[in-house]
Structures are given as C-alpha cells and as structure tokens.
Design goal:
This protein has 198 residues and is an all-alpha fold. 80% of the residues lie in helices and 0% in strands. The chain has seven helices and no strands. Helix 2 runs antiparallel to helix 3 and helix 5 runs parallel beside helix 7. The N and C termini lie far apart (41 Å).
Amino acid sequence: MSNQAQLAAQSSLALIESMINKAQNRYSENGTLYLLWGWIIFICSLGHYALLAYTSLGANAGYIWMLIIVALVYQLYYLNLKEKKETVKTYTDEMIGYVWMVFGISMGLVSFIATKLGGWQLMYALILLLYGMPTFLTGAIMRFKPLKIGGVVCWCLSVLAVYISSKEIILLLIPAVISAWIIPGYILRAKFKNSFNG
C-alpha cells in the first residue's frame, strides 16, 4: 500500500472515529429518559410492594403500573421534540434506538408469556435479565462504563430472583433501576451540563 493510500485510510478512520465520538457526546444528551424510566419503575415497584404488604388491595395493587403509560406518553413527546431539533441522525443514534425498540418489544412479550405460563418468580427474573441487555449494549456503543456496570448488576439480580419466591422479588427492581438508569442518568446529566459550560 502506498503512503498516499495509507494516509487516506488513516484519514477515513480518523473521520469515522471523530463522527462516533461526536455521536456519543451528542446522544448522551442530558440523561432525561434514563431518569424518567428509572424513577417511574422505582416508584411503581415500591408502591406495588407497599400496597401488597401493607394494605388490603391485593389483586388491585398492580394498577400502580399504569403510571408507565404516563411515562410512555412523555417519552413520545420528548423524542418527537428532540427529532425536530436534530438536523442529522447518526448511525449510533439509530443503533441505540433499535436496541431499545427490541427491548420494549421483548419486555411486552415476556410479560405476556410469563403471566400466562409462569408466575412472578419467572417474570421478574426475565425482566431483570432483559433490563441488563439494552443497558449494557447502549453503554458499549456509547463507551459509557456506568451503563455497562448497570447492565451487569441487572443480570446478577436476575440470578438472585431465582431464589426469592415471595412478593419481596418486586423490590429487586429498585436496585436494578438505580444502578442501570438512575445513577447513569445523573452522570449523563452532569456530563451534558459540563459540555455546555466547558
């Protein structure tokens, strides 16, 4: 390979690297959706457990999860607003979008299948397993270690869920979302603010 060809190849790689880095910095935004979903799941999990453990609501306690609809409506509004402001959608953005779309579809299917064929223990173990996948993959794509750590924590909690057969299994969602979405969300928000101040 000639020097010119080598330089052209190096320039291309440098350009791709630069685009990826810009996309990573841009996609990390302000952690809004991580915080939104982290806190919604936190509140629903704690509320569901409290209603089951300390009230006579029993079967109706699960209705607290209807809060997810509010979060979903806000997410659609937020993403629509974000899309209007963006002039270019990068490959990284697109890949991360697909990762989370697959997660959403998988979550819906797992919840449906587990409630029909399994029970709480199976459903929560699978949900925690699924939480780890998009979180870890997004962290890998963005080269953002806190998300990767959060994904691994979710996988460890999914194994722990196998040994908890009582309603306390609901509480495993709390450390899962704290490590996978809430802590990374606040770190992303801080990075976002620093990038504007810096």
